[in-house]
Design a protein that fits this description.
alpha/beta, 49% helix, 3-stranded mixed beta sheet
């Protein structure tokens, strides 16, 4: 029995190793052939922001949004308030009274739905007039070129444009381990996702920087098929569009990159990543290829560690193999996401933490052990999720 388990372990590690190197090679080819779509049409844009108790962040975000280099008459701002209990409404109304093209949509009934954010987002989108829905979070900072850059990717055949978002670290040397880990982890994750986009594969995205045609959103039924999933208003919506044949691209231009503040504690970080990982179980149905890649990576990561307790030398070979492959991928993709050599010097620490953090948050996510916007996911599986 032990022999068969050992052979199974080697098989899983081997499949993970082969999958990893195959995709890293394909990513390299994809990066070399990368050509971004260019649209010169000026489209009507509705910037949709949903927030709850974001009074301290809203003035900065709204100022950024009102300072865009895009024609003022071609974009509006719609804020969906997820039943805030602070001065959010007063702040938005102050900007409205100053004559800015901003609309305030109050969302109530958050206690009666699984995902209050989807409820607020849905109401806000229904109130928009634009052809393109452009989303970010209330605690983000966007460059003045954001709208123009994102719209430049909307050629006639493109339905969704995903963008990059990173954490703000003014001085790298003064940042703590958690802040450095979060920043580098996000960048390395997008090196993999970005590689997928170069091959025409849309695996994941983030609502902090995402744009899609309102007509495409309506075509997939809005959020109706994912209404009873607490999170995933971005990544699961992307998969619905992909399955409906809508073309999805990624904006690699730094002119489109948004920024957000780093988390303040490991507890907050684990909760966030567990929430993101909770969508993995739906990816098996949404996008089996991406699920297979995630599973293969987990086999390689943890298989190597387990193997060390059985055969130390062979286990170390597997671990070093992983490092080598990742370094190859980093070498040709890091510049696309503004990762400096100084940041990459943190890689050894990231490697140790990530090996355990990945599996830990993945497990928490599958059992819905996280809190979002003050709510926990339902313990029982709801019928509407079967529509996926």
């Amino acid at each position: 029995m032990a022999r068969y388990l050992y052979l199974l372990l080697l098989l899983l590690i081997g499949s993970g190793a082969v999958t990893y190197i195959v995709f890293v090679i394909r990513f390299y080819i994809g990066w070399k052939r990368l050509s971004e779509p260019k649209n010169y049409k000026k489209l009507r844009v509705s910037i949709v922001v949903v927030g709850r108790n974001e009074a301290k962040n809203l003035p900065r975000l709204l100022t950024c949004l009102l300072s865009q280099d895009y024609p003022k008459e071609l974009y509006e701002i719609v804020f969906g308030d997820d039943n805030s209990e602070d001065d959010t409404e007063a702040i938005v109304n102050r900007f409205i009274q100053e004559g800015h093209n901003i609309r305030y949509i109050k969302s109530i009934g958050r206690d009666n739905v699984v995902s209050p954010k989807k409820l607020a987002l849905n109401k806000a989108i229904l109130a928009t007039d634009g052809d393109i829905i452009l989303t970010t979070d209330a605690d983000c900072i966007v460059p003045f070129t954001w709208i123009s850059s994102m719209m430049s990717c909307f050629t006639d055949d493109v339905s969704m444009v995903a963008g990059y978002s990173s954490t703000l670290i003014p001085v790298w040397s003064k940042a703590g381990i958690l802040q450095k880990y979060e920043h580098l982890d996000f960048a390395l994750t997008y090196m993999v996702l970005g590689g997928g986009y170069t091959l025409g594969k849309s695996w994941a995205c983030i609502g902090q920087n995402l744009a899609y045609r309102k007509s495409a959103w309506e075509d997939v039924g809005g959020f109706s098929k994912i209404w009873n999933l607490m999170s995933g208003d971005d990544v699961n919506l992307m998969q619905l569009m992909r399955r409906n044949g809508h073309k999805i691209v990624f904006n690699f231009s730094p002119a489109s990159f948004t920024h957000t503040h780093p988390v303040k504690s490991w507890k907050q970080f684990i909760n966030q990543r567990s929430r993101w990982a909770s969508n993995m179980k739906y990816q098996l149905r949404f996008n089996p290829e991406f699920f297979f890649i995630l599973f293969s990576m987990a086999c390689l990561y943890w298989g190597g560690i387990i193997l060390m307790f059985i055969n130390l030398k062979l286990g170390l070979v597997v671990f070093l193999y992983r490092i080598l492959i990742e370094q190859i991928m980093i070498s040709y993709s890091h510049r696309h996401f503004g990762v400096s050599a100084r940041m990459l010097s943190f890689y050894p620490i990231w490697l140790v933490i990530q090996t355990f953090m990945l599996v830990f948050t993945m497990l928490l996510g599958q059992f819905n052990f996280f809190v979002w916007h003050g709510k926990r996911p339902p313990k029982r599986r709801l019928n509407a999720s079967n529509n996926i």
